[in-house]
Amino acid sequence: MQETAWQVSLVLMLMITFGVIFVAINSHKREEEYGPLVKRAYGFRTKLFWVVALVFLPAMIYNLMDLPYDVSRAATAGGPPQVINVTAHMWYWEMDRDQVDAGQPVEVHITSADVNHGFGIYDKDMHLVAQAQAMPGYTNVIRHTFKEEGTYKVLCMEYCGVAHHNMMTEIKVGNL
Ligand SMILES: [Cu+2]
């Protein structure tokens, strides 16, 4: 049995060896045959590289322009921030002011008196402008400069009980 296994192995090893030698001997011929094809493939690859580079590089730079989020720049640009202190309750928002000027930085200091809530600011088209979690024992800060005047809606973004959907208020931006 062992003898047979050895003979079979020997035959297989010899076949592989001849196979390798055959490929090695014929490899230069293949190169000639495939030459034009390889050239075309390389040409296509180069074109593809430039298309990808030209499309994605500007997109990547554009996307990274806001990074790193420079807190100090946001806080100092355009003068001292207008601070809004917010305390979330089940189920209402307590804010010490609800009017700010456009074009001036705003700092919203957010905490909660009971459970976790989510403080989300929406523009007139109900697009989310900025958000932070309202947590008991912590104060989270949103730094944002409103570019457009108008009335912004504040909605709770984290389910906090039966009247969660009623947790709405407004921030008026501009000289209203
Ligand atoms: Cu809620």
What value does the Rg take, in angstroms?
33 Å
User: What composes the largest sheet?
Assistant: 5 strands, mixed
Which structural class should the secondary elements be placed in?
alpha+beta
How far do the termini sit from each other?
Answer: 98 Å
- According to CATH, the fold-level topology of the largest domain is Immunoglobulin-like
What can you see in these coordinates?
With 176 residues, the chain is α+β, with helices and mostly antiparallel strands. It has 2 domains: 63 residues; 96 residues, Cupredoxins -  blue copper proteins (Immunoglobulin-like, Sandwich). It has a 5-stranded mixed sheet with strand order 3-9-8-5-6, with no helix packed on it. Strands 2-1-4-7 form a 4-stranded mixed sheet. The chain is elongated and about 90 Å long. The N and C termini lie far apart (98 Å). 14% of the residues are buried. The model has no long low-confidence stretch (mean pLDDT 89). Copper (II) ion binds next to loops.
TL;DR of this structure?
With 176 residues, this protein is of the alpha+beta class. It is 39% helix and 31% strand. The protein folds into 2 domains: 2-64; 79-174, Cupredoxins -  blue copper proteins (Immunoglobulin-like, Sandwich), CATH 2.60.40.420.
